[in-house]
Design brief:
The structure is a single chain. By secondary structure, the chain is mainly alpha-helical. Helix 2 packs antiparallel against helix 3 and helix 3 packs antiparallel against helix 4. The protein contains four helices and no strands. The chain starts with a helix and ends in a 10-residue tail after the last helix. The protein is flat. It has one domain.
Length: 107
């Protein structure tokens, strides 16, 4: 019985390594502006900026993970993940500088 539980636990840990990697990557990416704010006034993020960035990055990473787990066809996996990353970049650019001129733009 214990051996079976050990196998299940090992499988769960192996399966969730990418999720842990995604979370750590998001944290490291968010540390960049946080550290930059300590050295220059050019980077001026608020708490809301960090929250929105974390939601966007973590959401995109976890959606790509879901696609990788659920879609068997490698071409579909790549296509969907590229679309998700393109959407992330467009939303990020709109929030930063307002390339589309929506009310959510950074201006």
């Amino acid at each position: 019985m214990e051996e079976k539980m050990d196998k299940i636990n090992a499988f769960m840990i192996k399966q969730n390594k990418r999720v842990i990697g995604i979370v750590l990557t998001v944290v490291l990416l968010l540390l960049i502006p946080l550290i930059a704010m300590q050295f220059t006034d050019e980077v001026n993020w608020t708490v809301l900026d960090f929250v929105v960035a974390a939601i966007l990055l973590l959401g995109t990473g976890l959606m790509c993970e879901l696609v990788i787990r659920k879609i068997n066809n490698i071409k579909y996996r790549i296509a969907i993940c590229v679309i998700l990353l393109a959407a992330l970049l467009l939303i990020w650019a709109e929030l930063a500088v307002g390339i589309f001129g929506t009310p959510f733009s950074g201006h």
